[in-house]
Amino acid sequence: MVVEDDTTLRETLALNLRSEGYEVVEAEDGERGLDLAREAVPDLIILDVMLPKLDGLTLCRILRRESRVPIILLTARGTETDKIIGLETGADDYVVKPFSLGELLARVRAGLRRGRSPEPATELSSADLRLDLLARRAYLGEAELELAPREFELLATLMKNRGAVLTRDLLLASVWGDDYLGDSRTVDVHIRWLRQKIEQDPSQPQRIVTLRGVGYRFEG
């Protein structure tokens, strides 16, 4: 379901999602979005923050009380408060406008994967890389990796959202917490350390891809 009051954007998103094989229902305001969510019971909701009649954050809060449906917020550039509050009110992810269609589709796929899982994953894997989330241990092949706690959390966050571009701000909030006062460049430093440990064969493709000026994406 796409809940967006901008008709052009809503119809464009719906058209492209349908071209990817998804069934799409649309709502132009928050009240209609709430009614349609209850009627259609969608597998994932793309929800604009700024909506008439019932704003997106309030709608997100109501929906989260009623279901576990994955919710992706669409936020305006620079509204950091919206992002933080949105995640705290139950949204699973957010995309900052303007955004690329490829980024949104990647987040939709990631959201649907999470939504289909009845129980939280206890292990993450990609080729010969494996994370044991319960024991908090990482392995490359048969060898155990020595990862600092932040490195482990950062890698787990990237792997859980494989294929999706995660901004530095989102990674900071997810791994270091909203009250972290340091520079976002600490993400770059930890990514460099991770690469040294999980990308030991230079002939193989990168596992963590940099999107300059945007963030990072884990390639499974």
Topology at a glance:
Blueprint: E1 2-3, H1 7-19, E2 26-27, H2 30-40, E3 45-48, H3 56-66, E4 71-75, H4 80-88, E5 93-96, H5 101-116, E6 123-126, E7 129-132, E8 137-140, E9 143-145, H6 149-160, E10 166-167, H7 168-176, H8 185-198, E11 208-211, E12 215-218
Parallel strand pairs: 1-2, 1-3, 3-4, 4-5
Antiparallel strand pairs: 6-7, 7-8, 8-9, 10-12, 11-12
Helix pairs in contact: 2-3, 6-7, 6-8
What percent strand? 15-25%
Judged by helices, strands and strand pairing, the structural class is alpha/beta
- Provide the CATH topology of the largest domain: Rossmann fold
The poorly predicted ranges are none
- Give the H and E element order: EHEHEHEHEHEEEEHEHHEE
What's the end-to-end separation, in Å?
Answer: 27 Å
Helices, by number, come to 8
Largest sheet: 5 strands, parallel
CATH top level assignment of the largest domain: Alpha Beta
Cα radius of gyration in angstroms: 18 Å
Q: Total number of β-strand segments? A: 12
Which term fits the overall shape? elongated
- Percent range for helical residues? 40-55%
Strand order of the largest sheet: 2-1-3-4-5
Q: Work out the count of structural domains.
A: 2
How confident is the prediction overall: mean pLDDT?
86
What is the CATH superfamily of the largest domain?
Response regulator
CATH architecture grouping of the largest domain: 3-Layer(aba) Sandwich
